[in-house]
């Protein structure tokens, strides 16, 4: 047994599952290769489990009983949010509908919420000066989206003898553009029909196909792109205007700033409370190294 928290034993299987969950996250975000950070991830797993155990223990101490109606209300909300009972049980991965186990788990959530509410209370009402200081400290979160205005020449593969034929045509058009040909005039001469859009107007990231945006947003104003492909065919694009990301006015984001201020207050209160629980707890780790590879 590797972990004992105030007499509560944490099974090795639970530690291993938490470790694999953490490692999987870092592998998906390409921040780890093989076993190089396994000791760190195992330490993170144990710390997570210690924190959860202490919070659950404290919640049960403060609120040993939870009214059945509160459990029922919370459970029904979870079912409704999941889109019905079938999806709810699929989401929690329970092979059978053990209502007693489910209700006890839901009761734990109710206890924890009550405990957190007690920790956070009373929440502050920030002054205007405090909100403006929070705004300045977190300016990167209140920036407008970068926008560009772009135009493109595009040719689909429909009716073409081969991809190579279309590609070669587009290469020749690009050579003309690089030599100084007027983009709008050339695009007009080579568009398939009147419905085919040349000037795409102003747009932000996320409004067009990713392949197109990756090229367009990486370009400078007036630059001619390489020939590239999307599911619609071959393209050449140019950026005709750019609106950089700028800080949105304080008054426009005031409510969002207030929410962040409260969240930061809660984080500080929570972390302080958790450290106090850890300082007062009896935590036994019989396997502090745990450096075996997770494969």
Explain this structure.
With 295 residues, this protein is of the alpha+beta class. The protein has two domains: 3-123 and 258-285, Triger factor/SurA peptide-binding fold; 147-243, Chitinase A, domain 3 (Roll), CATH 3.10.50. The protein has helices spanning 12-28, 38-62, 68-82, 85-92, 99-120, 128-137, 163-178, 183-190, 210-216, 254-280, and strands spanning 3-5, 8-10, 147-155, 199-204, 228-230, 233-243, 283-285. It has a four-stranded antiparallel sheet. It has a three-stranded antiparallel sheet with strand order 2-1-7. α1 (12-28) crosses α2, α2 (38-62) crosses α5 (99-120) and α3 (68-82) packs across α4. It is elongated, with a radius of gyration of 29 Å. The model has no long low-confidence stretch (mean pLDDT 92).
Compact description:
By secondary structure, the protein is α+β, with helices and mostly antiparallel strands. 53% of the residues lie in helices and 13% in strands.
Which descriptors apply to this entry?
single chain, 295 residues, Chitinase A, domain 3, 2 domains, 4-stranded antiparallel sheet, 3-stranded antiparallel sheet
Count the domains: 2
Enter the CATH topology name of the largest domain: Triger factor/SurA peptide-binding fold
Rg on CA atoms, Å: 29 Å
Strand order of the largest sheet: 4-3-6-5
Reading off the top of the CATH hierarchy, the class of the largest domain is best stated as Mainly Alpha
Q: Helix count?
A: 10
The termini sit apart by 21 Å
Strand fraction equals 5-15%
Would you tell me the overall average pLDDT? 92
The appropriate CATH architecture of the largest domain is: Orthogonal Bundle
């Amino acid at each position: 047994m590797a972990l004992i928290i105030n007499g509560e034993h944490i099974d090795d299987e639970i530690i291993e599952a938490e470790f694999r969950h953490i490692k999987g996250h870092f592998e998906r975000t390409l921040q780890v290769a093989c076993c190089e950070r396994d000791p760190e991830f195992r330490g993170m797993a144990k710390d997570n489990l210690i924190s959860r155990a202490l919070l659950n223990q404290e919640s049960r101490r403060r609120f040993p009983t939870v009214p059945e109606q509160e459990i029922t209300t919370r459970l029904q909300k979870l079912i409704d949010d999941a889109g019905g009972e079938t999806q709810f049980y699929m989401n929690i991965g329970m092979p059978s509908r053990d209502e007693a186990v489910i209700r006890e788990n839901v009761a734990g959530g109710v206890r924890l919420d009550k405990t957190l509410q007690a920790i956070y209370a009373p929440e502050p009402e920030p002054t205007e000066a405090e909100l403006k200081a929070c705004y300045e400290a977190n300016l990167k979160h209140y920036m407008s989206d970068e926008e560009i205005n772009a135009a493109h020449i595009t040719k689909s593969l429909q009716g073409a003898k081969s991809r190579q034929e279309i590609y070669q045509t587009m290469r020749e058009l690009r050579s003309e553009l690089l030599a100084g040909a007027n983009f709008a005039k050339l695009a007009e001469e080579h568009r398939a029909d009147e419905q085919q859009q040349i000037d795409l107007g102003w747009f932000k990231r996320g409004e067009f196909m990713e392949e197109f945006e990756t090229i367009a947003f990486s370009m400078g104003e007036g630059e001619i792109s390489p020939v590239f492909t999307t599911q619609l065919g071959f393209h050449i694009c140019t950026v005709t205007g750019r609106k950089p990301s700028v800080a949105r006015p304080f008054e426009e984001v005031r409510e969002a700033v207030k929410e962040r201020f409260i969240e930061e207050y809660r984080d500080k209160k929570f972390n302080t409370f958790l450290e106090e629980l850890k300082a007062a707890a009896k935590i036994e780790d019989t396997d502090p190294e745990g450096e075996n590879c997770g494969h």
